[in-house]
């Protein structure tokens, strides 16, 4: 029960109500003490008036009975500027403290009550007050503290018992209210989420907002919107998966047909007809590009990028390895390479996947420069970025074709590169998303192209 919302709410309610009662208890016990002392003063005044009515002609037994009924040891009454000892007890212990109730402040009453509550020694105290109905100037009595302390303890226990009953009753009422107004609706939402999770493609399991509390209804409406969108995306994904499976089958059969056509085209090159000899190489190149496209489509359909194994990667040696490999691949080309990495820069990434992304971007940059027939340069820069790191791949090539920025990172997008399938940048972008980062085109034009890899910060920082 302690781990449930309603159970914790019940315990907190009891605790808070008891704390509130504690703050109320201290002034109330002080007020009880004041009324107790005032009552003894009033009783003592009545006893003194009975004595004055007989002109002091009473025996000792009656005087003792009057003092016992008033619960005091002696009574002093000041009338007409004369201070008179009206009633007294023989053999009284010395007085240890005097309390004047005529002008006592609330703080003094609370302080004296707290001291008396925790003082266990029996003492005699003097209490001074004003007589009721102006029957004199003042009245003072001497009394024992033991009965006062016992009465305060009894009153305190009754107050605490009543406070406990009130807190428990209040907590139970709030417990029932919370169960009805909050816990049950939340359980209904949780149940709807669990039911939807069992079959997210079933639109009948989408939650219907019914909450009467505004915040809860807002949450239900947000959940309904999310479930609706997710169901739609799942259906779209299922249709795309079916379409992809059909495309894969078609590509597989088409590749076989194109392979046969290529064999036939190779035979055409042996023909002595000048026109056939001129057309055959173009036909073979077109068939080769078609075969490459079908194979790339099949490979992309089978590709499932594994989750990155994030680790601390020192960037400089990894970039040097990428540039050295691409330099060997170009042979006697005129493309130069440069690395500008902050010394000791460490990023949080999967080293193999990051190597693939950089190799792809560097290879694309080199091929773009080579296509111009002019020398150029490929530069890889690495530096810390806000909240992570940035790696830029910069080339001095001719730039991307106009309008190719749209859908640049989508599969099979047009690249105008001979033999290209339009899948390289899409795979690179997918790998970066798996790292929680992003691949962006920062700029392109006649002066060159710049791609940027943004990696989020983490434990490597």
TrEMBL record:
SMART domains for the chain: HATPase_c (SM00387), HisKA (SM00388)
Enzyme Commission no: 2.7.13.3
Sorted UniProt keywords: ATP-binding, Coiled coil, Kinase, Membrane, Nucleotide-binding, Phosphoprotein, Transferase, Transmembrane, Transmembrane helix, Two-component regulatory system
TM annotation in the entry: 6-30, 159-182
Domain Histidine kinase: 249-459
Superkingdom, taxonomy of origin: Bacteria
Catalytic function, reaction form: ATP + protein L-histidine = ADP + protein N-phospho-L-histidine
SUPFAM superfamilies: ATPase domain of HSP90 chaperone/DNA topoisomerase II/histidine kinase, Homodimeric domain of signal transducing histidine kinase
Protein name, as recorded: histidine kinase
């Amino acid at each position: 029960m302690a781990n449930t919302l309603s159970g914790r709410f019940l315990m907190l309610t009891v605790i808070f109500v008891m704390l509130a009662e504690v703050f109320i208890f201290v002034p109330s016990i002080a007020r009880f003490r004041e009324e107790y002392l005032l009552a003894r003063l009033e009783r003592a005044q009545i006893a003194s008036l009975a004595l004055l009515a007989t002109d002091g002609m009473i025996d000792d037994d009656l005087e003792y009975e009057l003092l016992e009924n008033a619960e005091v040891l002696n009574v002093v009454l000041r009338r007409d500027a004369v201070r008179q000892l009206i009633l007294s007890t023989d053999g009284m212990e010395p007085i240890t403290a005097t309390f004047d109730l005529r002008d006592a402040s609330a703080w003094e009453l609370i302080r004296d009550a707290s001291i008396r509550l925790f003082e266990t020694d029996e003492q005699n105290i003097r209490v001074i007050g004003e007589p009721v109905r102006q029957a004199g100037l003042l009245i003072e009595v001497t009394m024992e503290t033991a009965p006062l302390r016992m009465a305060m303890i009894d009153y305190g226990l009754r107050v605490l018992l009543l406070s406990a009953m009130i807190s428990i009753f209040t907590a139970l009422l709030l417990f029932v209210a919370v169960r009805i107004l909050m816990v049950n609706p939340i359980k209904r939402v949780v149940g709807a989420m669990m039911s939807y999770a069992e079959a997210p493609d079933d639109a009948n399991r989408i939650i219907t907002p019914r909450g009467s509390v505004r915040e809860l209804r807002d949450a239900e409406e947000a959940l309904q919107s999310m479930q609706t969108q997710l169901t739609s995306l799942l259906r779209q994904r299922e249709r795309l998966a079916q379409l992809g499976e059909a495309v894969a089958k078609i590509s597989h059969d088409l590749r076989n047909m194109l392979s046969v056509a290529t064999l036939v085209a190779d035979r055409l090159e042996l023909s002595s007809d000048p026109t056939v000899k001129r057309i055959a190489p173009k036909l073979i190149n077109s068939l080769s590009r078609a075969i490459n496209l079908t194979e790339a489509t099949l490979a992309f359909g089978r590709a499932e990028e594994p989750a990155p194994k994030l680790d601390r990667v020192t960037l400089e040696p990894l970039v040097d390895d990428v540039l050295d490999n691409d330099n060997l691949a170009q042979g006697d080309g005129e493309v130069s390479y440069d690395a500008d990495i902050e010394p000791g820069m460490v990023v949080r990434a999967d080293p193999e996947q990051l190597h693939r992304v950089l190799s792809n971007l560097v290879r694309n940059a080199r091929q773009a420069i080579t296509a111009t027939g002019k020398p150029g340069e490929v530069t890889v820069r690495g530096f810390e970025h806000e909240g992570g790191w940035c790696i830029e791949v910069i080339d001095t090539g001719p730039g991307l074709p106009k309008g190719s920025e749209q859908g640049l990172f989508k599969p099979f997008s047009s690249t105008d590169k001979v033999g290209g399938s339009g899948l390289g940048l899409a795979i690179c972008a997918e790998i970066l998303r798996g790292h929680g980062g992003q691949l962006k085109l920062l700029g392109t034009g006649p002066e060159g192209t710049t791609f940027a890899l943004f990696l989020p910060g983490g434990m490597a920082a």
